[in-house]
TrEMBL record:
Domain (UspA) ranges: 3-127
Highest taxon in the source lineage: Bacteria
Matching InterPro entries: Rossmann-like_a/b/a_fold (IPR014729), UspA (IPR006016)
Protein name: Nucleotide-binding universal stress UspA family protein
Signal peptide limits: none
Organism per entry: Brachybacterium sacelli
CDD domains registered for this protein in UniProt: USP-like
Gene3D superfamilies: HUPs
SUPFAM superfamilies: Adenine nucleotide alpha hydrolases-like
Coiled coil location: none
Amino acid sequence: MAVVVGFIPTEVGFKALAAARDQAERRGGPLIVVNVVREGVREDPRHADDQQLEIARDELRQSSVRVAMRQEHTEEDIADVLLDVVEEEKAELLVLGIRRQNDLARHLLGLTVQKLLLSSPSEVLVV
């Protein structure tokens, strides 16, 4: 069954990518890697550039399952884009990496993560 990972080019994002690869291999794949780019938002560290996407591809080259890399551009909510991909791919699992940068972040999840946890038709793994 398909595994979707919401990929951001950070240390946490690469940990989520590794966890998603492992899950996809256990479940028989495929693995769909999705980086969402918010239109009109410049210099967002969540947006992967070509070099960062190539590094992610390199991390996945030895995977035993089919890997698809997608960069989705939107003016909408990032969570909605990921939920659409999960439904489109009939994914069994959605993998997310979250940052824990301060005490407040440890206690409160961001709105995007909350929406994904509450709305995903699939299981959700948070790394």
